[in-house]
Design brief:
Layout lengths: L2 E7 L6 E4 L3 E5 L6 E2 L8 E6 L2 E6 L5 E3 L2 E3 L4 E4 L4 E4 L3 E7 H7 L16 H55 L4 H18 L3 H21 L6 H13 L5
Parallel strand pairs: 3-4
Antiparallel strand pairs: 1-2, 1-11, 3-5, 5-6, 6-9, 7-8, 7-10, 10-11
Helix pairs in contact: 2-3, 2-5, 3-4, 4-5
Length: 244
């Protein structure tokens, strides 16, 4: 589900940002996908999983979604139409792609000197029909491309789905009160972001830190790890060879 984030109040030159990735970073650091001046270098992460958007607070500044505080290190769903405030420095709104397109100004222009004849409706209809044929042709090409090359992307898609499920299960089981779980979750999310950005060194480091935390927990726990912890450890162990 593609959506648009637009700044309601901010010193940023950015007025809108189309969310096309599963994970984006928001902060004053120029390396963030959505840079906003006046806030922490990496203030928060917006993640799309399970058909919804989630905000992970990465800074000490108070973050509110529709007036509800998201504590440092915690996550909360961010639904369409809700306002997100970052420490009083910026306010963002999440909008669906459909709604954004409805509100977009028309780009159709006419010459002032051009005379509008009685044949104009027919001409417009002809243009619309031509455009429709072009769109249908593009769709057919797109379907053919997916049938031909879709298998190459199935692995990446399955990894994204697996990541979403692991994070959701882990967050659901541990909540916000387990500091070790929060560190593991933070490490895995940072690793996945780095992996998507082809930064294998950073991904390897973050995956390794999360794995060490889980191994330490496993050795100190009499009954071993829970099923969800084992699921997380299995995911990390599977991803590490991919970022070597």
């Amino acid at each position: 589900m593609t959506a648009k984030i637009f700044a309601k109040t901010s010193d940023a030159a950015l007025t809108e940002f189309w969310v096309n990735d599963d994970v984006i970073r928001v902060g004053s650091d120029a390396g963030c996908e959505l840079p906003l001046p006046g806030i922490a270098p990496h203030a928060l992460t917006v993640q799309h999983r399970g058909g919804r958007y989630y905000v992970f607070n990465r800074c000490t500044a108070p973050i509110r979604i529709a007036g509800q505080i998201v504590p440092e290190g915690a996550s909360n769903p961010w639904d369409l139409g809700q306002e997100l405030e970052i420490g009083g420095e910026a306010a963002l709104m999440l909008q669906s792609a459909e709604e954004a397109l409805k509100q977009a100004p028309s780009t159709e222009r006419y010459d002032d000197d051009e005379e509008q004849s009685t044949d104009e409706p027919a001409e417009k209809n002809g243009n619309k029909n031509t455009t429709s044929l072009i769109i249908l042709g593009a769709c057919a090409v797109g379907i053919l491309f997916l049938l031909t090359f879709g298998a190459k992307q199935s692995s990446a898609k399955s990894t994204t789905v697996q990541f979403e499920e692991v994070v959701e299960d882990y967050t659901w089981e541990h909540g916000e009160n387990d500091p070790t779980a929060r560190r593991v979750l933070d490490g895995v999310q940072r690793a996945r972001i780095a992996e998507l950005r082809k930064d294998n060194a950073s991904a390897r480091e973050s995956y390794g830190e999360a794995k060490d935390l889980l191994w330490t927990k496993k050795q100190s726990a009499n009954g071993g790890l829970s099923d969800v912890d084992e699921q997380m450890l299995s995911f990390i162990t599977e991803r590490l060879p991919r970022v070597q």
